[in-house]
Amino acid sequence: MANTATLSSKPRVLVSGGTGFVGKNLVRTLVDAGYVVTVLSRHADLHKDLASPPLLRVLGLPMNLDAHGPEPSAALVELLKGHVALINLVGILNEPRHNGEVFEQVHVGFTKQILTAAHQAGISRYLHMSALGADAINGSSVYLRSKGRAESWAHEFGASHGIAVTSFRPSVIFGPGDSFLSRFASLARLMPGIFPLACAQARFAPVYVGDVSKQFLEALNDPGRAGQHLDLCGPRDYALRDLVDYAARVSGHPRRILPLPDWVAQIQARVLELAPGQPFTRDNYASLQTPSVCAAGCARQPTRLEDIAPDYVGRSSS
């Protein structure tokens, strides 16, 4: 256990969304780098195993996502005091009502409340998780438009309130515990020889979760990255069908990939968005119409999918 004098000299960072796949990796990276981390969670009791006091705390989230307007609670402002930076990883891929309301609450409303609270608490550094393709006006899906609005608002608010904002726009993120390659490997195990696949030509540049965490840490330590929107991609681009084929083979369940015509894919989305867990929705389909790849000349992250995936994809699908 760190002694009191040593602990008081360490910078404190608060992470919202720190109990998810990326968050768990990032908070470990931050603690290893010498930060004291507070993780905010709406379900703190379910994540006590993540805590490692006094260097890592998991606390309940004192706010109401259904509240209208950005004004935060006094309890949230008080909780944020004493931290040098706020990192916001909160996000969802699907919503229950398919009308954009929950995307707006979680992505835009939450960002407004917690960043306003950070300003009132005296925090001057903010790191924001967005997504490749996020665009408030031209995003191809409700998800991407809501992510774009949140990202734009954060930068505008930061510029006018003295908060240094950096946003990160990753392609799909892979690593142990992901819900991408692991999910396709599990589905392949259930398929009888043929894997019907919607949007088989959709493009991705998978980026390793460890590289994403490293970029957050470097930005946190580099004031020169304030104001930047950083695209994060792995070393190469893939079609979705190639990623699914790879996950199936590595997991020991090779399948023939059957690309579905667009009209069938859209029907599939209408049906599956009604299933438990919403494995595929019409908004997911719309998101896949935008290639999740970086522009030419963008600095690529180094870790190859093929160097990491075999160590966990097979285990997750068995």
Structure description:
- It is a single chain.
- The chain folds into 2 domains: 4-174 and 207-232, NAD(P)-binding Rossmann-like Domain (Rossmann fold, 3-Layer(aba) Sandwich); 181-204 and 236-296 and 304-317.
- 39% of the residues lie in helices and 16% in strands.
- The chain has 12 helices and 13 strands.
- The protein has helices spanning 4-9, 21-32, 74-80, 101-120, 142-161, 181-190, 209-220, 240-250, 262-272, 282-287, 305-308, 313-317; strands at residues 12-16, 36-41, 56-60, 85-88, 125-129, 164-170, 173-174, 194-197, 203-204, 207-208, 229-232, 238-239, 256-259.
- It has a 7-stranded parallel sheet with strand order 3-2-1-4-5-6-11, with helices on both faces.
- Helix 2 (21-32) crosses helix 7 (209-220) and helix 4 (101-120) packs parallel to helix 5 (142-161).
- The chain starts with a helix and ends with a helix.
- The mean pLDDT is 93.
Blueprint (SSEs and pairs):
Blueprint: H1 4-9, E1 12-16, H2 21-32, E2 36-41, E3 56-60, H3 74-80, E4 85-88, H4 101-120, E5 125-129, H5 142-161, E6 164-170, E7 173-174, H6 181-190, E8 194-197, E9 203-204, E10 207-208, H7 209-220, E11 229-232, E12 238-239, H8 240-250, E13 256-259, H9 262-272, H10 282-287, H11 305-308, H12 313-317
Parallel strand pairs: 1-2, 1-4, 2-3, 4-5, 5-6, 6-11, 7-10, 8-13
Antiparallel strand pairs: 9-12
Helix pairs in contact: 2-7, 3-4, 4-5, 6-8
Helix-and-strand structural type: alpha/beta
Average the pLDDT over all residues and give the rounded result.
93
**Estimated radius of gyration:** 20 Å
Our count of domains comes out at 2
CATH class of the largest domain: Alpha Beta
Uncertain segments are none
- DSSP summary, beta strand count: 13
Shape: globular
Query: In what order do the strands lie side by side in the largest sheet?
Result: 3-2-1-4-5-6-11
Subunit organisation of the chains: single chain
Give the CATH topology of the largest domain. Rossmann fold
Number of helices: 12
What does the main sheet amount to? 7 strands, parallel
Q: Write the H/E string, N to C.
A: HEHEEHEHEHEEHEEEHEEHEHHHH
* CATH superfamily heading of the largest domain: NAD(P)-binding Rossmann-like Domain
CATH architecture of the largest domain: 3-Layer(aba) Sandwich
Question: What is the CA–CA distance across the termini?
Answer: 38 Å
Strand content is 15-25%
**What proportion of the residues is helical, as a percent range?**
25-40%
